[in-house]
Amino acid sequence: MAKSSIKHDPSGMARELERWFKAHARDLPWRRRRTRWRSLVSEIMLQQTQVSRVVEKFDPFLKRFPNPAALASAPEDEVLAAWSGLGYYRRARSLQAAAGVIVERHGGRVPSDPELLMALPGVGRYTAGAVASIACGQHVPIVDGNVHRVLSRLWADPVSADDRAGMNRAWERAEFLVKEAGDPGVFNEALMELGACVCTPKAVSCSTCPLSSSCIAFDQGKVELIPPPKQRVAQPIEHHHAIGLVRRRKLAVQKRSTEGRWGGMWEVPTVESKRRLRPGEIQKQLGLEIESLELIGSFQRTLTHRRVHFHVYRGQLPVGNKPWMKSLKWIAPGEEMPMGVAQRRTLELLEWPDC
Ligand code: SF4
User: Fold this and answer.
1) Distance between CA 340 and CA 3 in Å, rounded?
2) Average pLDDT, stretch 65-69?
3) Nearest ligand 1 atom, CA 194
4) DSSP-based three-state secondary structure for 15
5) DSSP characters over 190-233
6) Whose C-alpha lies nearest to ligand 1, atom 2?
7) Hey, which residues are catalytic here?
8) Which of 24, 215, 225 to mutate to test the pocket of ligand 1 (most atoms within 8 A of CB)?
9) Is the pLDDT of residue 121 over 50?
10) 68 and 207 assigned to the same domain
């Protein structure tokens, strides 16, 4: 690690950062009123989802599920529909399971103890630290990708976020700083905000940074070198062949397995493959003959570890496919179903009015 004349003063750094946050924090819905439940929901939503999308979804979700009991007792389809657009639907299921545990074991109130928080489904050290510090004022650290980058630069530690020893150092540094914070919740949020808005991966704005006088990477002109660039890995490609089938002005949809991507969500009948399939192969994999299978359009979605090409077809079911049709649900135009973003795009291509 680089040698430097800078000696970190945790109390001074915490004060600077808290002052900066109070003056520059973005106005986000979950910051307007702090409760443990609102903190937990916002932190789970923000994992792997852009802030702008969470901004749209947060208030309607909280209106429908204002407390753990409301979420725990809701039908899963309703929870997934309210989550729709946020992606990674496993989080919605985990949040509902966590709400169930909160009702059963904690009298319906989100616990404040980080250990108890970490025992909830879908809650890791970061989320537990965020809720315990932001909603309960505890001096516990948090480290996510943004915070990791800020801390690596403050200490000029050229380590990537997937290096376990480097991540341990980041947690130790976060703890070193938060212990001296006046308000640990404000401090932790400020650290996240700094990583999101100032100490960004590219176009770093050191000239506006409240911690520039404590930053070794800035002092040594190494900001752009930390963290080191990730090694590019070729992304696997998948092809999803989605077939719009309409009968008596209703569209056929089916439920995905609860495991894996878009688990438990609804979609038009879809054949997944590692390569593009010909119409005959699609029909063979579906196990039925579809009349006049016609390609309507294609689009791509890039997920965390793969790229998916969607090919959207329109077809007609011949008479006599009754056993296979039992797995289908027929929805009317505008009928609300829990669907992912890609599935909604498929409906758009099929010119099917959804909610
Ligand atoms: S001075 Fe620059 S590199 Fe250092 S923490 Fe601030 S924004 Fe990040």
Assistant:
1) 49
2) 98
3) 7
4) helix
5) HHHHHHHHTS-SSS--GGG-TTGGG-HHHHTT-GGGSSPPPPP-
6) 206
7) 43
8) 215
9) yes
10) yes
Average pLDDT over residues 36-45: 98
135-182 pLDDT per residue, tens: 999 999 999 999 999 999 999 999 887 889 999 999 999 999 999 999
Total domains in the fold of the chain: 2
Q: Is the CB of 226 under 6 A from ligand 1?
A: no
CA distance 252 to 329: 6
Cα 153 to middle of ligand 1, angstroms = 6
For ligand 1, say whether the CB of 204 is within 6 Å of any of its atoms. Answer: yes
Of 195, 225, 255, which one is at a domain's C-terminal end? 225
Residue-wise pLDDT tens digits, 148-159 = 999 999 999 998
Closest atom of ligand 1 to 205 CA is: 7
Q: How far is the CA of 31 from the centre of ligand 1 (A)?
A: 24
Could you list the residue range(s) of the whole structural domain that residue 254 is in?
237-349
C-alpha 204 – ligand 1 centre gap (Å): 7
Do 24 and 135 share a domain, yes or no?
yes
Tokens of 186: 């404000």
User: 325-329 long-range contacts, Cβ below 8 Å, gap at least 24?
Assistant: 325/252, 327/254, 328/245, 328/252, 328/253, 328/254, 328/269, 329/252, 329/253, 329/254, 329/255, 329/266
Q: Over range 326-332, report the average pLDDT.
A: 87
